[in-house]
Design a protein that fits this description.
Shape: elongated
Largest sheet: 5 strands, antiparallel
Distance between the termini: 43 Å
Structural class: alpha+beta
Helix content: 40-55%
Number of strands: 5
CATH topology of the largest domain: Alpha-Beta Plaits
Radius of gyration: 22 Å
């Protein structure tokens, strides 16, 4: 099944957006405006996919229409505008969707309320059924997903960043001092808590180690 690659699930959902011409702000524009300003109303890094911490990557896009590239292709148009949601995550689909409805309910509702057929997030089973009806088969995965969990990937990035910083900080040190420094560094690295999902900057990955 192409939606699954080892322990990683690739989810692609295409939801038709409501078209109500009498509105002052269209539903597609409302989605864009909310997504554009989402980072300003949340704590640093604590977006909807921080809350669902099995997420490797996620992307939301509003698709207005297909592009006509000219002959010999045929000019075609979509029947509506669509919200495209793509995500790579650990685990099973139903569990992930139920966590979206539970842990990121406010953000999910503020986005999908503009889509046709959206049932809300209070009835989790109805929400899962709706999302599955909008699902299409995934055939391409984010390149950095390598069948390791989010926590395993974050720990590997933490180690990589910490080792690079250790080398930079201690280069030129006498051998006996370097050995002692490395032993101490290794202990701190083993005991350091893993980074939180969304931690991407080197300082965030190493400040518990160095």
């Amino acid at each position: 099944m192409s939606n699954q690659s080892g322990s990683i699930y690739g989810l692609t959902i295409i939801s038709p957006i409501k078209d109500e011409p009498h509105l002052e702000i269209s539903h597609s524009l409302a989605i864009r405006m909310y997504l554009q300003h989402l980072h300003t109303i949340l704590k640093d890094g604590e977006g909807p996919f921080f809350k669902v911490n099995s997420t490797h990557m996620a992307r939301l896009v509003v698709l207005d229409d297909v592009v006509y590239f000219g002959m010999p292709s045929c000019e075609e148009h979509l029947q509506s505008k669509y919200l495209i949601f793509e995500s790579n995550f650990d685990g099973e689909l139903d569990t992930y969707l139920s966590r979206l409805a539970r842990d990121a309910k406010e953000e999910v509702h503020n986005i999908w309320q503009h889509c046709i057929g959206y049932p809300g997030v209070e009835n989790t089973d109805a929400f899962i059924s709706y999302m599955k009806r909008c699902q299409v088969e995934t055939t391409f995965y984010f390149a950095d997903v390598n069948d390791k969990s989010v926590q395993q990937t974050l720990r590997a990035l933490q180690t990589q960043s910490a080792v690079a910083s250790f080398i930079e900080k201690n280069q030129g040190m006498p051998p006996n001092e370097l050995q002692n420094a490395f032993v101490d560094f290794s202990k701190r690295l083993r005991n350091a808590p893993p980074p939180k999902p969304g931690s991407t900057k080197g300082k965030e990955l190493t400040d518990k180690v160095l």
